[in-house]
Every structure is written in structure tokens, then in C-alpha cells.
Inverse folding.
């Protein structure tokens, strides 16, 4: 989660404070329908050994030239670089990219995934609910077409998401909007972002939508918290 929702650059401020001063003030996540949540900023600097199994599996599957979308503090890219792989970390947060650069990721770029073109990658990595950048069900076709523009016939996309059905129990009706379309604000200390949309998908819906856009969708891993890792290939 690192939305282009405000010039305040909430994630960047938190990353820089932790990196330079070991300030562990968390990022707060606000949703009007649920209690506030927190993202421990030190978690964004985790090593491979500290990552959940889902992320470890995703990194182990990476190959060739890799695009790390929403790289944040660059933890995934640093692990891939240490393995001798070619990786391009991108993020829309300019301060986050400065932190990546200081951590040794000299190729990191402040760049929106939807503005990237004229390049092809063997692996496109979208972790920490990377599909959230699609924002809504209606935007999925645009998201998938952008993926295609960055792929060659043998490319793979590795992405994770979570099925949020557990948050609603028996409250949903057929007339409700899809339960994975969320609206958030995030804050750090006295800075707070504008509202932004973020999308969570269950695997069955991801498979259905991706198949209609010409992808093969494989369920790679499921964790105990309703999260899953999926692999997309061109059909």
C-alpha cells in the first residue's frame, strides 16, 4: 500500500525517519468502517529471513529481468540484487526512492507503474497486495493491459492479495459492492493523506478477470490469514 493520494508522501516520511534516526513511529491506516490499523515502519526494512513465507516463495520464483512494483524501502529488491539478479525497483514515493538509493539500489526510480512503457521484463513483482494499485474492479482491465505491455510471451507476474470476506461474515448481500474495494487514508505523525481507493481480490475473482484478458492464472500459495500468491502468464 503506497498510494498516489497526496503530496505529503506519508510512506516516504516514515521510511526516511526510520532509516536516518531509527524513529519507529508507525504509519496509521484509517478506514471509516473499521478500527484504525498500524504498519510498523521497521517491518518495511525486513530481511529475507524475516519475511512471511508467501514473500519468500515469490522471491524464490523470480528470474531474469525483474520489475519490483511499489518497492517501498526496497527490501525485496535488495534480496534479489544480492542473488545477482537484475531488478528495477519503482515507486511513486520520491522519498522512498531516495531511501532505496541510500540502501544500495542505484537503479531505483520514482515512477508510476501505469506510466512505464517501452520496456519488457521476465518477472513483474507486485507484493504487499500489489494488485491494490488497480484501485477498483472497473480498473482491472486497464491494469491487465498495462501488464501485457511490459511482458513478452514467456514473462511471469507474481502478485499477492487477500480475500477480505472474513471481515464481513454474514453481512453481505447481492446488492453490495464488491467487498474488496476499500477506501483509506494513511497518516504519519501530524501528516495525513487524502482518501484513496485500494483493491483486494479473492483468488476466484482474480482468476476470472485475468482469464478474460488473456492470462493463465495459477494459485501458488495460500497462507493462514486469507492471503494468497498467484502467478500470471500470457495465454
Amino acid at each position: 500500500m503506497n498510494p498516489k493520494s497526496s503530496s505529503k508522501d506519508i510512506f516516504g516520511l516514515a521510511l526516511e525517519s526510520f532509516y536516518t534516526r531509527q524513529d519507529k513511529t508507525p504509519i496509521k491506516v484509517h478506514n471509516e468502517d473499521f478500527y484504525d490499523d498500524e504498519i510498523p515502519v521497521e517491518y518495511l526494512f525486513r530481511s529475507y529471513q524475516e519475511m512471511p513465507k508467501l514473500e519468500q516463495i515469490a522471491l524464490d520464483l523470480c528470474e531474469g529481468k525483474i520489475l519490483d512494483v511499489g518497492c517501498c524501502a526496497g527490501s525485496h529488491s535488495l534480496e534479489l540484487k544480492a542473488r545477482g539478479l537484475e531488478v528495477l525497483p519503482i515507486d511513486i514515493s520520491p522519498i522512498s526512492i531516495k531511501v532505496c538509493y541510500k540502501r544500495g539500489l542505484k537503479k531505483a526510480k520514482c515512477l508510476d507503474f501505469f506510466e512505464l512503457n517501452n520496456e519488457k521484463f521476465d518477472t513483474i513483482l507486485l507484493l504487499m497486495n500489489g494488485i491494490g494499485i488497480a484501485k477498483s474492479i472497473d480498473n482491472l482491465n486497464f491494469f491487465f493491459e498495462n501488464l501485457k505491455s511490459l511482458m513478452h510471451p514467456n514473462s511471469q507476474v507474481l502478485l499477492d492479495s487477500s480475500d477480505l470476506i472474513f471481515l464481513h461474515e454474514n453481512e453481505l448481500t447481492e446488492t453490495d459492492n464488491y467487498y474488496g474495494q476499500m477506501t483509506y487514508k494513511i497518516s504519519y505523525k501530524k501528516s495525513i493523506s487524502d482518501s484513496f481507493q485500494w483493491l483486494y481480490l479473492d483468488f476466484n475473482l482474480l482468476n476470472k478477470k485475468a482469464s478474460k484478458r488473456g492470462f493463465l492464472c495459477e494459485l501458488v500459495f495460500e497462507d493462514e490469514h486469507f492471503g494468497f500468491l498467484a502467478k500470471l502468464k500470457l495465454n
In short: Helices lie at 10-21, 53-61, 75-82, 94-102, 140-149, 203-212. Residues 53-178+198-234 form a domain with the Rossmann fold fold (CATH 3.40.50.150). The longest helix spans residues 10-21.
